[in-house]
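User: My advisor, Dr. K., asked me to get a structural model of this assembly before our group meeting. I'm new to this, so sorry if the format is off. These are the inputs:
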Amino acid sequence: MILSIKRVPTVVSNYQKEEAEEGARHATGCGRNCLRSCCLPGAKLPLYAFTKMGNVVGEKGSFDIENKEPPVNFLDSLLLGEWEDRMQRGLFRYDVTACETKVIPGEYGFIAQLNEGRHLKKRPTEFRVDKVLQPFDENKFNFTKVGQEEVLFQFEGREDNEVQFFPNEPIDIDNSPSVVAINVSPIEYGHVLLIPRILECLPQRIDRESFLLALYMAVEAGNPYFRLGYNSLGAFATINHLHFQAYYLATPFPIEKAPSKKITTTTGGVKISDILNYPVRGLVFEGGNALEDLSNVVSDSCICLQENNIPYNVLIADCGKRIFLFPQCYAEKQALGEVSSELLDTQVNPAVWEISGHMVLKRKEDYEEASEENAWRLLAEVSLSEERLQEVKELIFEAICCNMDEEIVTRVMKDESDVTPQSHDDMDGLKGSRPAMVPA
Amino acid sequence: MEPQLGFIEKSFDLRYSDLVREALDELPDCFTITDPCICGHPIVFASKGFLKMVGYSKDEVIGRNGRIFQGPETDRRSVMEIREAIREEKAIEISLLNYRKDGTPFWMLFQMCPVFSKEDGRVINFVGVQVPILRKLRLSGNGIVRSEMSLREAGNGAREILFRCCRSEVCSDSILELGHASCLESVSSNDDREFDINEPCEASELEKTKASTAISNILSVLTHYSELTGKLVCRKRYCLSGNRQLGASLNICLGRIKQSFVLTDALLPDMPIVYASEGFLKLTGYSRHEVLGRNCRFLSGTDTDPTAQFQMKECIQYQQACTVRILNYRKDRTSFWNFLHISPVRNASGKVAFFVGIQIDDHCKNHETNSLSPEMQQLSVVGAVKVAVRSLSMGASTS
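Assistant: The format is fine. Below is the predicted structure of the whole assembly, which you can bring to the meeting.
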């Protein structure tokens, strides 16, 4: 049986609409000024080259470097400036700053936005949700098909001592650059997509190098309100071309306020904790002797999940200092008809931003009635059950060669059930219904 | 950095007179005072006790942001809570792991509170008191678990160090002598140190009282000395209704932007300036109180081209962005060509609440090839202002 859901795909590029209308027309020199061989020769884009050295985050000797008073942050300025430029050029489908937004009263401060324009004009499409890894399909929309004007800059790491910027650098076709492009349906100001090695046409699948690039972007931006996110297939990614998302929202996300309980520290100094008292269960990673330590532990965990066909979402927060990982099962439940119509009617797709507590709502009534309780109820459906998460954690810890201290884990579980009595009541019963997701 | 140092201290003296430092230095507590109105929210005063505790000299601390004392094991969630308290202009009490200059970590109780201007309710400063927490192996339920774990995880050697460490902290004065830090050093150089230093640390009632008393003493000094200059401050905000204030949070956000720009209030009659950046004051020669509350037209003069003014008016009317090159005048009446970009800025309800105007002196519009173009710099200010205004007007009602 193939599990799939129908949903309205998000239009991330102005060339995505045409795609559906024109079908699989393949023209040479397509006239769209895209990022494929027809249009690339002679193309230039700004290039931001960060330095791969000296970015040790967890080491004592280095925190002087880290804490140097930043001048106006360069990557931050570049991104904001280029984004505003595209806004004034009218490349977005709507002005996201004209969409009403508010903090929902309550302990966690869930954030609601009313966005009536994001989902217009698209037919619901079938998405397969039971395969986290799927091969790249050249015939479907991918980021090489976006217009060059939608690309803000190239982003790469160099071994130099300082950041370098080239306002007009040719695109090196042989060295497949990583690029930052706008999302023409932004959910907040500065919504962009980081597409690692775009010309290699990688499917949506985490690898160590790409994840490190995303982490570097968070570190380089140096702004705690600029966060990066990742959705796997089956966890509400709609485009099977490797990409991370990011945007600005200068308020804490509820997930960032959730308490956590340490499970263990890896040999590389990465602290791994359980997220407590939050509707979606998951793990938080922080510290590490070097940025690579943190990056590798998280990417190895992601690789473990995707290889075990477990859909997941990742949030890179706090300038790359904290990373949240959520295995999830909402799309699968949805496909199996286990999600209530009341929740489905809101058409909220619980991807990384929603899980982190930023709810983009399509209907005015949902926006006006938004409450912490409603948000909690939706997110509780996204979470794995406690037992299921335990199994998943064992897989992860085995993959990253880390032993969980049984006693601590047991204690944490007890603590958590004490503090969140209202959540996930019916979740445990679901465990038996999805053996397919983890080959035992 | 250096030319700014004098400026940073001066802003403090202007409000509290230059006698205030002496009075604050007489207080025995460890504390810092920061100024959210200055770019980077720097420390403007650090007590002798504080400097001794962290092992930094005064010059290494003044002008820096408080985050220099955080380190790898500092809890990120606690850091976020402090950041949010500053944004919401609220007091906070939290246990925090900080680091001395030599890299040794120590737990302290951090109490912070805003200091308001009596005149307009603005936040003038934040006072932060740090009380070192004496760590004991508590005999309460949780404490036993903790010491057992450290015993099991770290072995007997580490436990001994833990004891020694606690004892020396107990022996030393509440302000740790630097010499005693070497003991902590031996703990932190031990790989198994986590279980003492990394475990969350709870302050005792005594420590909490100590911090509160210190805050009160500092506040009374500040209040007293603000009376000398007539620029009164107070601990409680006296809200003047109808007077739209940019919060400290927005001020901090905007303060990070170095370029010359102003924010004008689109919802008030005649669109007065509600924020002017340091860069703007430097460019035009005015001081802040001379421009706040006024419409931007005072920058124009006899030779200003009326068509440029008309163009701006029209853009504002249609809520559109525009760029004009307009002849403007400084306070000393010298003129300059202003390469001006104006853009509407919406608040969280999606309504245009402000206009941001970013000025570039056309004469100084030299553009290094490897930096952002002046146009791009202007747009990045627009972006940063839009993010700040939108996010900070969402009406955070979190507890």
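One thing worth pointing out at the meeting: Chain B has three domains: 2-133+203-234, 141-197, 257-392.

User: Perfect, thanks a lot.
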